[in-house]
Automatic annotation (TrEMBL), chain A:
GO terms for cellular component: plasma membrane. Keywords: Cell membrane, Membrane, Transmembrane, Transmembrane helix. The chain crosses the membrane at residues 7-28, 34-55, 67-90, 110-134. It is a multi-pass membrane protein. This is Multicomponent Na+:H+ antiporter subunit B. Its main location: membrane. Residues 8-132 form the Na+/H+ antiporter MnhB subunit-related protein domain. It is found in: Cell membrane. Belongs to the CPA3 antiporters (TC 2.A.63) subunit B family. It comes from Bacillus benzoevorans.
TrEMBL record, chain B:
Signal peptide: none annotated. Belongs to the CPA3 antiporters (TC 2.A.63) subunit F family. It comes from Bacillus benzoevorans. GO terms for molecular function: sodium:proton antiporter activity. The chain crosses the membrane at residues 6-25, 34-54, 60-82. It is found in: Cell membrane. It is a multi-pass membrane protein. Keywords: Antiport, Cell membrane, Ion transport, Membrane, Transmembrane, Transmembrane helix, Transport. InterPro entries: MrpF/PhaF-like. This is Multicomponent Na+:H+ antiporter subunit F. One of its GO terms (cellular component) is plasma membrane.
């Protein structure tokens, strides 16, 4: 079969991929005050990676992003359990979250919440599970 | 005034959606159906924007971008399936 040259897709991906990843990061960080959060942010990041997989192939993507997505899932679960169990150290019940207001020089007053770290765990688990499913289905012939 | 205009626009979008659904059901070839589904995604973006104006809420603006991205990914995946027979290749240039 003749080699198919899909240069339009490959060129447009180079712009679109960063927009999609930026959008997923925005949705993840805005999840406390606006619709969004770890789940949909992780799904959008996985969607960007799927777009990369469609444009190129599994070997190229594995060379660009040398992650093992199963380990990413484990790291996400570790984040969730760690932030939940960390509250035990301060003599409060499991899953109690704390927040504080911090004055950062350039960004102004920020409200830092440990629920964000829990959400980061959800984000990693969603990205890892989605990419594991898609890569496992895509690899077999 | 704006209320009436938005209702008319919603009605027109619904009519366009009905025409596209006719093309999805009737379309003789598979690419016809893929194009119609892509256009349904664009129509859905318009309807979501109009509905968010009706409800006076900006909570759906993320959904608009989301539908656009998902429609693009779906269409690209289907186009690659129609062209090559696989969506995700293991290795290119074999």
């Amino acid at each position: 079969m003749m080699k198919i040259n899909n240069i339009i897709l490959e060129t447009s991906i180079k712009v679109l991929l960063f927009i999609i990843v930026l959008y997923s990061v925005y949705i993840f960080t805005a999840g406390h005050y606006y619709p969004g959060g770890g789940f949909i942010g992780g799904l959008m990041t996985a969607g960007a990676l799927v777009l990369l997989l469609i444009t190129y192939d599994i070997k190229t993507v594995a060379k660009i992003l040398p992650f093992n997505y199963r380990i990413l899932t484990a790291i996400g679960l570790l984040f969730a359990i760690g932030t939940s169990a960390g509250s035990i150290l301060f003599n409060v019940p499991f899953l109690t979250h704390a927040f504080t207001h911090v004055d950062v020089p350039i960004l102004g007053e920020l409200s830092l919440h440990t629920a964000t770290l829990f959400d980061l765990g959800v984000y990693f688990v969603v990205v890892g599970v989605t990419m594991t499913i898609i890569q496992t289905i895509g690899e077999d012939e | 005034m704006l209320e009436i205009v938005i209702r008319i626009a919603l009605f027109c979008c619904s009519l366009a959606m009905l025409g596209l659904i006719y093309r999805v059901i009737k379309g003789p070839t598979v690419p016809d159906r893929v194009i119609a589904l892509d256009a349904i995604g664009v129509n859905l973006v318009a309807i979501t924007a109009l509905i968010s104006i009706v409800l006076k809420s900006h909570a759906f603006l993320e959904v608009i971008l989301l539908i656009g991205i998902l429609a693009f990914i779906g269409t690209v995946a289907f186009a690659k399936y129609l062209e090559k027979g696989v969506i995700i290749e293991r290795e290119r240039n074999r």
